[in-house]
Hints:
The protein contains eleven helices and six strands. The longest helix is centred in the middle third of the chain and has 22 residues, at 161-182. It has helices at residues 19-34, 46-49, 70-84, 101-104, 134-143, 152-155, 161-182, 193-212, 218-228, 234-244, 259-275; strands spanning 38-44, 58-64, 94-100, 115-118, 126-128, 145-149. It has two domains: 8-155, Beta Polymerase, domain 2, CATH 3.30.460; 161-278. A six-stranded mixed beta sheet has the order 5-4-3-2-1-6, sandwiched between helices. The chain is of the alpha+beta class and 281 residues long. The chain is 48% helix and 12% strand.
Amino acid sequence: MNIKFLDDTRVPDHPYPELREVLYTFVNEITAELAENLIGVYLVGSIATGDFDLDSDIDFLVVTNTELTEKNIESLQEIQAKIYDIDCYPAKHLEGSYISIGDLNNWPKVGEKELYYFDNGSTTFEQSTHDNKWHVRWILRERGITLTGQKPEQITQSIPRHELSNEIKTTMLEEMKAFENEINRPRCYWNSRFGQSFAVLTYCRMLHTLHTGTVQSKKAGVKWARQFVEPKWVNIIDQAWKEREGVRFLEKIRQRAEQALLYETLEFIKYAIAQKDNVEV
């Protein structure tokens, strides 16, 4: 089957050759359901920033002209379930949101409105601000892969760097509080092996964004951080990157991280936050 997308050369064939067929089915089903209401289907996340690997999920954003109807909501969940039933990794790791063009460009309200969102591996909509963020808009506008529809630069303007930076600084503080609240509790998200490593890698990535004004992958964030943070933090960064390997098997999220490592991670988070105001924007 000769499957082509608008940004075809940017859709990776490795490490999952079956990804192309999954996306082809996904796009065709969504196009048929939304018809004239569809503006475009885009890939964001690591697949767009260029470091898609065995443990990556497939992040998408669908932009519409108007709000979804009740019929749309029901049908799109059925489509998500149909895709999930395809027997391959990419089909079971689609994650993303549906956003109207009005909400996409309603900059004063970024981060406020909950969108219809599929979590990684879910076939049921939840309402979440997960993708109603400045950094998602930045990836869409600057790095998004257009599967079908209008190109991102045709539907939204460049994201102001100060908005991106302010969002990152706020997120750094919020996630530190969440991590600190869970550090001594029975196994939770942040004190799992998955959550601990995710925290370290995410703070590397956020520091990278503050310094560069761009949103890159976790891998790029790690590479940058190893060169720019104080040397004593390099070991925990390397540990986190190694720990990330194999998270696709969903075992590490059910296993508690070592307590000493959690405390070291919290100290790294505090160090990263202390650096956030040392960047001129």
